[in-house]
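User: I'll paste a sequence; please echo it back and then give the predicted structure.

Assistant: Echoing your sequence first, then the prediction.
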Amino acid sequence: MKKMLSFSPDELTAKEKKKFLIGSVIPRPIALVTSQSDTGVINVAPFSYFNIVTFNPPMLSVAVLRENGDSKDTARNILQNKEAVVQVVDKDNVTSANLASTPLGPEESELDISNFTTVKSETIQVPGVNETKVRFETELYDSVVVYNEDNVPTTDLLLLKVKHYHIDESIYHNGYIDPDKLAAVSRLAGSDYAEIGKLFSLKRPE
């Protein structure tokens, strides 16, 4: 029997709880989310607490961690205006996505400090990012505020329903997306990222 370390969350610091999760739940896909404020400021930010919820209806989840109990610009914009574009971070745009994680004030746009440019959306007011191979135009389906043990709000969990898909034709073939050509990157812990590695297949049991 292998020896396992065993902890209760009550025994761990906030940093330890975070490190155990982000160091273990890997690789994590990265969403590049564009949103728009009431004053028209375009916010662009990457998030690695991101995944698919279901395909019927097509839905994504993005968890936006709060700062001192306050919602970040992305969550606040989406909760107010009910729209966002979710893009996939890949090898070609990850450096710009990292720049977009720079803390800015609500009246400042990450477009001014990154190499990103915008493209008009088909079904929503929020624009997408040109320098991505996959874009999902979404509307807010539901949201949940997550609280810690001290009843302080720590996270805005956003469920985003896909209204329109944009797929770069260079990565699309016979109804499938080529993972090598998409070249999505994933988040590990600390400052580490990963590219698509060795692929293998397993037949699912019937």
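The longest strand covers residues 153-167. Residues 14-24 form the longest helix (11 residues).
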